[in-house]
Design goal:
CATH architecture of the largest domain: 3-Layer(aba) Sandwich
Strand order of the largest sheet: 6-7-5-4-1-2-3-8
Number of helices: 16
Distance between the termini: 58 Å
Bound molecules: S-adenosylmethionine
Oligomer: single chain
Radius of gyration: 33 Å
Number of domains: 2
CATH class of the largest domain: Alpha Beta
Largest sheet: 8 strands, mixed
Order of helices and strands: HEHEHHEEHEHEEEHHEEHEEHHHEEHHHH
């Protein structure tokens, strides 16, 4: 059978909520009758705005089937979000008052109300508008006037529906709720009728309610409400966030290690460039070519550092780096802070950077705490072979090596990384 609506109607309903979230940026959202958490999964992508996302359904088995799809992905740990996002799922009925559901910015109830008996609709109104008393509520429900256009339908759209309202019935209930609890409402919907039949209205009718007091936190049943927690928590997860100091520290350390290694490579490359330059100059004197230095310049142009293009000239960096007496390369902390964009952004201040790195075993500090020390590579002597080694024996580099000996194995930076 050809789908009647494109995109399918349930997607259009969820998209309506997503569009509302994009526009109004609520921070705390609860979806009542969340079923298999489809809407919650869509909303979780808006975690820049939302910091608490809650789902409630009377049918715990239904929720459990798909709830793990809300868990963070490995990529969420590699690139934690700046803000916080917690997701909680509860088993419970919308006819019960649970104090954890108060003070929300948005409550959604998508195709739920028609599953309630008239008495339960009464409770639902009191719980949602009177007790939870959020800033906004979105309620969608079938529009029975559209039913004659649904091919082969006799009776209600679902066997569990207790009623299906006409637009007038829905509006009358909604306006009464507004009057009683201090809200205003706009009526709209999704799923348009074929051309010429639009007078029946939308297939799903939607009421968007706004609290006239904003998110006041005030509720009509506040006496003993604080102590009521009838819902059962089924699932709870916190997304990795930079606001978590451990995660911030982990990302920062990764960034610092990445930059220090690249700066070390750059420093080594600059040192060998200086040597090559002398060598090339000598070659030129003897009528040789300067291909060594040309190759070096080409390689330099392509280099990026930790994903970011490094501004030329490169020697600016190298001048601030030096080999200390123990044979470690010293990288000033303020250079890391001011030249490595993400390091600066994550730490905020230089002092904070020092503080966040202070207890980190993979980061070695100079005695004065002003620089990060990096193990220099040993391959300079091992990989370059005897011939080159003889040349180096004459240089100042060899003097330093002789003086300092080789770095300790236990401090092998490369392995640590
Ligand atoms: N809102 C979801 C969506 O848009 O896909 C699911 C809608 S489904 C038609 C109705 C849901 O309401 C079911 O998951 C059902 O278990 C839930 N429900 C029915 N009565 C409820 C109640 N009293 N309290 C909470 N949830 C209820």
């Amino acid at each position: 059978m050809e789908p009647l609506f494109l995109p399918p109607l349930h997607r259009q309903r969820h998209q309506f909520v997503v569009d509302f979230v994009k526009q109004h940026k609520p921070q705390k959202v609860v979806d009542l009758g969340c079923g298999q958490c489809e809407l919650l999964k869509k909303l979780k992508w808006f975690h820049r705005e939302i910091d608490l996302l809650v789902g409630v359904d009377v049918n715990g088995t239904r929720v459990k089937k798909k709830m793990h799809g809300l868990a963070p992905m490995p990529a969420d740990y590699l690139q934690p979000i700046d803000d916080q996002l917690s997701i909680e799922l509860y088993q419970g009925s919308v006819t019960q008052r649970d104090a954890r559901l108060r003070g929300f910015d948005l409550v959604t109830s998508i195709e739920l109300i028609e599953h309630l008996t008239p008495d339960d609709v009464q409770c639902f109104s009191e719980v949602v508008f009177g007790f939870m008393n959020p800033a906004a509520v979105i309620i969608s429900t079938p529009n029975s006037e559209f039913n004659p256009l649904l091919p082969g339908l006799s009776g209600f759209r679902h066997s569990d529906h207790k009623f299906e309202w006409t637009r007038a019935e829905f509006q009358s209930w909604a306006l009464e709720v507004c009057l009683r609890f201090g809200f205003e409402v706009e009526f709209t919907g999704v799923g348009t009728a074929p051309s010429g039949l639009e007078s029946v209205g939308f297939c799903s009718q939607i009421g968007v309610f706004h609290n006239l007091k904003g998110r006041s936190g005030h509720n009509f049943y506040c006496d003993d409400a604080e102590d009521e927690f009838p819902y059962t928590l089924m699932y709870s997860v916190k997304y990795p966030s930079m606001r978590d100091n451990n995660i911030l520290r982990r990302v920062l350390v990764g960034e610092v290690l990445c930059w220090t290694q690249r700066l070390r490579s750059r420093w080594e490359s600059d040192k060998s460039f200086e040597r090559d330059k002398d060598c090339t100059w000598n070659e030129g004197e003897r009528g040789g070519n300067d291909c060594l230095s040309v190759q070096h310049e080409e390689a330099r142009e392509e280099q990026t550092v930790c994903g970011a293009q490094v501004a030329e000239p490169e020697f600016g960096f190298s001048r601030d780096l030096f080999r200390d007496q123990s044979g470690f390369l010293s990288v000033p902390l303020n250079l890391l802070w001011s030249h490595c964009p993400k390091v600066g952004a994550l730490s905020g201040t230089l002092e904070n950077l020092r503080h966040l790195l202070s207890d980190e075993p993979s980061v070695k500090f100079s005695q004065d705490g002003d620089a990060v020390l990096i193990q220099l590579q040993e391959e300079e002597s091992e990989e370059k072979g005897e011939e080159e080694h003889d040349d180096l024996e004459d240089s100042r580099y060899a003097e330093v090596r002789e003086h300092c000996g080789t770095p300790e194995q236990g401090q092998d930076w490369e392995t640590n990384v």
